[in-house]
């Protein structure tokens, strides 16, 4: 029943991705981290190779990978720099609600337009006063005739400065709570949309994160995805998939930190021998490897569930918490093994430790994900085994 062997096509894609990452991302990862550079040239090359839009069906201009394959490729794309890896993969979250709730015509129209360029999309949910409590959003979609007029502000939006397509969540009536929230697909060039502050971040420095402002943005019913009031449900379903994606991202971060620690343990000599000969280092490496193996197994399981059209909210939230905590622990331990050499600015493990913090915060903090996972367990919503 369980088979971890990759198909020939999966092997080909993994080789292609690893080769791309080693040649295009590895050489510039530290430099782009320092400057917070938008990785435009890399996005263009990945786009040409079919390594962007990997999970979007071919009918809408994507590469049409199943979830398991997409997540395997995602781990590899995030190995050398997760900030660049996530700029490459942001469409997975930003188009999730549109893929789930859009009609065939709307998917062809909005996703088809987006996939013509490498600039991708943005998922616009968070607001200054509505972070964990996203249902308390204030961005208003006021009904006017057959359409809507949107006013409000979203913050911490990944790819906000560049995205061609925005997946926006806004409410028609705040008194309805989450039942008033709608999902809209909006081309960036729609009048009234502007970019606010660009964030200067601790890690993930090449990830573009901005405010997006909406001022009298006129939409028609054509922009509405799903029914009025279905937006919050679509956002949560997109986040189920996004959290599995974060699990794959974290596995890539942790694997890179682990590989750096192993090669240092082989080379660094103290007390007349390689530090890898000391049992204290064996124990650390064994625990780090266990966390990586478990993280990978979790995204493969949840990805498989998605490929079978099974609901995986509990598994996705559990996996996201586990893998992001694991990446934080593994990167911290990698810095410990490299010690003084790992603590200095401009070293790979120092960057990885800063990068590992973000996945504990976004796509729902780990506290919120533990609430989702805990409630799921209590409602018997964990269905495998
Ligand atoms: C770099 C970056 C990129 C991001 N990209 C996007 C994006 O593309 N699109 C988007 O929409 N959002 C994005 N976000 C926003 C992200 O999802 C939010 O930051 C996150 O949901 C937390 O919201 P908050 O920062 O307002 O924290 P708050 O909600 O203010 O939480 C503060 C603290 O309180 C805790 N807390 C809150 N409620 C509870 C509770 N009920 N029980 C226990 N603890 C609780 C939290 O866990 C946290 O520790 C991004 C954030 C960052 C930092």
Give me a quick take on this structure.
50% of the residues lie in helices and 15% in strands. With 385 residues, it is an alpha+beta fold. The protein folds into 3 domains: 8-114, Acyl-CoA dehydrogenase/oxidase, N-terminal domain (Butyryl-Coa Dehydrogenase, subunit A, domain 1, Orthogonal Bundle), CATH 1.10.540; 121-228, Butyryl-CoA Dehydrogenase, subunit A, domain 2 (Beta Barrel), CATH 2.40.110; 233-378, Up-down Bundle (Butyryl-CoA Dehydrogenase, subunit A, domain 3).
Write the layout of secondary structure elements.
Blueprint: H1 8-25, H2 29-35, H3 40-49, H4 67-77, H5 82-89, H6 91-94, H7 96-101, H8 104-114, E1 121-124, E2 140-144, E3 147-158, E4 165-171, E5 181-187, E6 193-198, E7 209-219, E8 224-225, H9 231-267, E9 269-270, E10 273-274, H10 279-307, H11 313-338, H12 340-343, H13 348-357, H14 366-378
Parallel strand pairs: 1-4
Antiparallel strand pairs: 2-3, 3-7, 4-5, 5-8, 6-7, 9-10
């Amino acid at each position: 029943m369980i088979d971890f062997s990759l198909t020939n096509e999966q092997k080909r894609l993994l080789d292609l991705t690893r080769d791309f990452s080693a040649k295009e991302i590895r050489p510039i990862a530290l430099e782009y981290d320092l400057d917070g550079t938008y990785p435009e040239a890399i996005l263009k090359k990945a786009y040409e190779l079919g390594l962007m839009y990997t999970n979007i069906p071919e009918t809408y201009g994507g590469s049409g990978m199943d979830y398991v394959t997409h997540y395997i490729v995602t781990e590899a794309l995030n190995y050398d720099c997760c900030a660049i890896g996530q700029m490459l993969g942001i469409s997975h979250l930003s188009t999730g609600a549109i893929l789930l709730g859009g009609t065939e015509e709307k998917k062809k129209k909005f996703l088809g337009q987006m996939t013509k360029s490498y600039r991708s999309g943005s998922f616009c949910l968070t607001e200054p006063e509505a972070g964990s409590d996203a249902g308390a959003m204030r961005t208003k979609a006021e009904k006017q005739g057959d359409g809507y007029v949107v006013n409000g502000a979203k913050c911490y939006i990944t790819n906000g400065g560049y995205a061609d397509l925005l997946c926006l969540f806004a409410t028609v009536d705040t008194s309805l709570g989450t039942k008033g929230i709608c999902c809209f697909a909006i081309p960036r060039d729609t009048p009234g949309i502007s970019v606010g502050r660009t964030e200067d971040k601790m890690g993930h420095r090449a990830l573009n994160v901005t405010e997006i402002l909406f001022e009298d943005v006129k939409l028609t019913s054509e922009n509405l995805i799903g029914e009025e009031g279905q937006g919050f449900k679509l956002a949560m379903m997109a986040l189920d998939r996004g959290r599995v994606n974060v699990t794959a991202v974290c596995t890539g971060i942790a694997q890179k930190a682990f590989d750096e620690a192993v090669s240092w343990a082989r080379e660094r000599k103290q007390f007349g021998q390689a530090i890898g000969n000391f049992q204290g280092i064996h124990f650390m490496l064994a625990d780090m490897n266990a966390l990586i193996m478990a993280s990978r197994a979790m995204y493969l399981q949840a990805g498989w569930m998605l490929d079978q059209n099974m609901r995986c909210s509990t598994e996705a939230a559990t996996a996201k918490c586990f893998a992001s905590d694991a990446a934080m622990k593994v990167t911290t331990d990698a810095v410990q093994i490299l010690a003084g050499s790992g603590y200095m600015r401009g070293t790979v493990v120092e960057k990885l430790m800063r990068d590992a913090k973000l996945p504990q915060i976004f796509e729902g903090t780990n506290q919120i994900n533990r609430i989702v996972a805990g409630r799921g367990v209590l409602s018997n919503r964990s269905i495998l085994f």
